[in-house]
Automatic annotation (TrEMBL):
Record keywords, A-Z: Glycoprotein, Hydrolase, Signal
Glycoprotein is among the record's keywords: yes
Organism: Oryza meridionalis
InterPro entries in alphabetical order: GDSL, SGNH_hydro_sf, SGNH_plant_lipase-like
Keyword Hydrolase set for record: yes
Domain of life: Eukaryota
Signal sequence residues: 1-29
Protein name: Esterase
UniProt family annotation: Belongs to the 'GDSL' lipolytic enzyme family.
CDD domains: SGNH_plant_lipase_like
GO MF annotation, one: hydrolase activity, acting on ester bonds
Length: 390
């Protein structure tokens, strides 16, 4: 993969030397005390990237926790927000958000609609972002370069807004991406076999990006697999032919079989990275199982697993891809908000047909934070522990 044309080799090389030297020494079983988190991904962990670039997520997004839209496609907090809280860190500012951002303890490069490989289309035509994972990695490289130059040469207030050099080797690097790579294929009417055929390419591209981050000093990686896409209303509405055969939870078997195969290949990829870089810690996190458990047990928990909270159209899913959350329709010549929130998001798993509610995200976080769904089975707070015998 070609490096970005704007990479400044001298500054980056200097930072790499610093971060490679300043490794964290942690006793076995102790909490890691990550000073920062750097996140890469799609809308499942976007804290404002797409909103800052292509127009803000409208109300009623953010209603449950923040009381207003804050760049998240959710009524409140995302899993990445709960991760930051758990580590005693502030919520991550989106790298692309130029106003009010504080990057002292990390940055978020995730952008809604992003995918591992580049999209041969535009956001306005397909809904998928041009800010693919390789672009996010270039942003990260530029972030190191520019932040350290400003930190060291301008000082002042910038030292209160930008990370210290040693944080890049001590930080936790989180990845949550892949869902859009699967759905893009299905949404242009590919078969399962055709989508499966390009999974090896996705793994190669992801490996290259993680290697790049490692080369820039990253040593602690927390990598989410993709969720049960076949349980999301938007996926089933887009390809009703794939939703004909459903499992006991009401999810599309075809979609989920591909998601599970993607996850198996991802787990194998992480295992190879572990062997290639024995001085780094790689944690594979089974988010799929956490999300599927929630959907399967939703009714027992007093939640509806499929009915969209902030949607339009009624029916089983209350989802219309032409009128999203906060979307408007014309009534008697006047545009009125039609994509309204349900009264109680706590009783829904799906926020807008694509993303989970805050309540659902909290459930998922609680499932994964302790490490029982991870390989190796280490808690989030101990994700700097190097796996022995790898």
């Amino acid at each position: 993969m070609a490096p970005p044309p704007y990479a400044a080799a001298v500054v980056v090389a200097t930072v790499v030397v610093l971060v490679l030297v300043l490794q964290v020494s942690v006793a076995a079983g102790a909490d890691c005390r990550f000073p920062a988190v750097f996140n890469f991904g799609d809308s499942n962990s976007d804290t404002g990237g797409l909103s800052a670039t292509f127009g803000a997520a409208p109300p009623p997004n953010g209603r449950t926790f923040f009381g207003m839209p804050v760049g998240r496609y959710c009524d409140g907090r995302l899993v990445i927000d709960f991760i930051a809280e758990s580590l005693g860190l502030p919520y991550l500012s989106a790298y692309l958000n130029s106003i009010g951002s504080n990057f002292t303890q990390g940055a978020n490069f995730a952008t809604a609609g992003s995918s591992i490989r580049r999209q041969n289309t535009s956001l306005f035509l397909s809904g998928f972002s041009p800010i693919s994972l390789d672009v996010q990695s270039w942003e990260f490289e530029q972030f190191i370069n520019r932040s350290q130059f400003v930190y060291n040469n301008k000082g002042g207030i910038y030292r209160e807004l930008l990370p210290k050099a040693e944080y890049f080797s001590q930080a936790l690097y989180t990845f949550d991406i892949g869902q859009n790579d699967i759905t893009t294929g299905f949404f242009i009417n590919m078969t399962s076999e055709q989508v499966i055929a390009y999974i090896p390419d996705l793994m190669e591209r992801l490996t290259n990006i993680i290697q790049n981050v490692y080369g820039l000093g990253g040593r602690y990686f927390w990598i989410h697999n993709t969720g049960p896409i076949g349980c999301l209303p938007y996926a089933m509405v887009h390809r009703p032919d794939l939703a004909v055969v459903k499992d006991g939870a009401g999810c599309s078997v075809a979609y989920n079989e591909v998601a599970q195969l993607f996850n198996q290949r991802l787990k194998e990829t992480v295992a190879r990275l572990r062997k290639t870089y024995p001085d780094a810690a790689f944690t594979y996190v089974d988010v799929y199982s956490a999300k599927y458990k929630l959907i399967s047990d939703a009714k027992k928990l007093g939640m509806d697993p499929m009915l969209t909270c902030c949607g339009y159209g009624g029916g089983r899913y209350n989802f219309d891809d032409r009128v999203g959350c906060g979307g408007k329709v014309k009534v008697n010549g006047t545009w009125v908000v039609a994509g309204k929130s349900c009264d109680d998001p706590l009783k829904r798993v799906s926020w807008d047909g694509v993303h989970f509610t805050e309540a659902a995200n909290k459930f998922v976080f609680d499932q994964i934070a302790g490490g029982k769904l991870s390989d190796p089975p280490v808690p989030l707070r101990q994700a700097c522990q190097i796996s022995r015998g790898q």
